[in-house]
């Protein structure tokens, strides 16, 4: 066994490996939750374990705002456009956060320059990694979870609601609770669609269409095409779910707001 010398990072063994493989193959988002409470101690444990995830320079450029209070949840849910998953008993807003670290530097007479785009990307990466680590650990405990990307769409209003300071940005809201549904399995592209050997491979037009056939043919996706009166799935994505006008409007709003968040 290659890691025999390193007991703390030893492989988990066949039995657990099989169960973990089973978890990853079958995992899916959950958008309906029971009213059962998520024990704060369990949540703290999940957050603590998740904080072992890689982080840029070990700076831990993130913060998590926990929303449990029913009234506060209802207010936050509205800022997520009242999506079904936003009715979960716990909402975790995971934020990119360079404010805490900058303040530490300022208090320590260190010349901190983190109000720039590069620093935003580092903090963003830290927050994304933390968020997904929380999802994985929570799901391994049997909890249901769902990412709410609306945390980014509505970052200015959510930031105000949660009283976030400068140099912070909501990156993900994680809806967490005990599942009241199994969730629906979803399709994925084949490895060959996104793995490139040594250099990026230029796929032909025919190959691109072929790579996305797995999505076009997926029964639920066929349903979306019919429901929306479109000719194909790409049109559902580009013209209904994530259309040009919405992307451009939210982008402009975010960029302007981010400039203001530097001070
Ligand atoms: C960045 C990001 C944003 C997402 N935003 C939402 C959202 O706003 N609402 C929602 O119901 N699901 C959201 N999801 C969940 C995805 O829809 C889901 O992961 C995807 O359809 C694959 O399904 P699965 O997680 O069940 O495998 C988001 C996921 C990610 C990673």
Give a structural overview:
- With 263 residues, this protein is an alpha+beta fold.
- It folds into 2 domains: 29-184, NADH Oxidase; 186-263, no CATH class.
- It is 49% helix and 11% strand.
- The chain is built from 13 helices and 4 strands.
- Strands 1-2-4-3 form a 4-stranded antiparallel sheet, sandwiched between helices.
- The longest helix has 24 residues, at 117-140.
- It is globular, with a radius of gyration of 21 Å.
- It starts with 13 loop residues before the first helix and ends with a helix.
- The structure holds flavin mononucleotide.
- Residues 28-29, 31, 83, 85, 146-150, 183, 186 line the site of flavin mononucleotide (FMN).
- Residues 28-29, 31, 83, 85, 146-150, 183, 186 line the site of flavin mononucleotide.
């Amino acid at each position: 066994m290659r890691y025999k010398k390193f007991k703390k990072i030893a492989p988990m063994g066949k039995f657990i490996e099989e169960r973990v493989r089973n978890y990853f193959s079958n995992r899916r988002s959950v958008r309906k939750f029971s009213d059962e409470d998520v024990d704060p101690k369990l949540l703290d444990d999940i957050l603590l374990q998740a904080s072992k995830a890689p982080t840029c320079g070990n700076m831990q450029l993130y913060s998590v705002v926990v929303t449990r209070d029913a009234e506060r949840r209802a207010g936050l849910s509205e800022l997520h456009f009242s999506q079904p998953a936003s009715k979960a008993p716990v909402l975790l807003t995971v934020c990119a956060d360079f404010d805490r670290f900058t303040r530490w530097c300022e208090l320590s007479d260190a010349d901190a320059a983190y109000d720039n785009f590069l620093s935003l990307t580092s903090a963003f990466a830290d927050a994304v990694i933390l968020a997904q680590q929380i999802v994985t650990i929570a799901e391994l405990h049997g909890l249901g979870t769902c990412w709410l990307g609306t945390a980014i769409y509505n970052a200015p209003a959510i930031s105000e609601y949660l009283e976030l300071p400068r140099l912070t940005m909501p990156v993900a809201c994680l809806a967490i609770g005990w599942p009241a549904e199994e969730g629906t399995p979803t399709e994925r592209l084949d490895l060959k669609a996104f793995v490139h050997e040594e250099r990026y491979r230029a796929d032909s037009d025919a190959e691109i269409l072929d790579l996305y056939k797995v999505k076009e043919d997926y029964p639920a996706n066929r349903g979306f095409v019919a429901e929306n009166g479109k000719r194909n799935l790409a049109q559902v994505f580009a013209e209904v779910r994530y259309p040009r006008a919405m992307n451009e409007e939210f982008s402009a709003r975010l960029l302007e707001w981010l400039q203001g968040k530097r001070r």
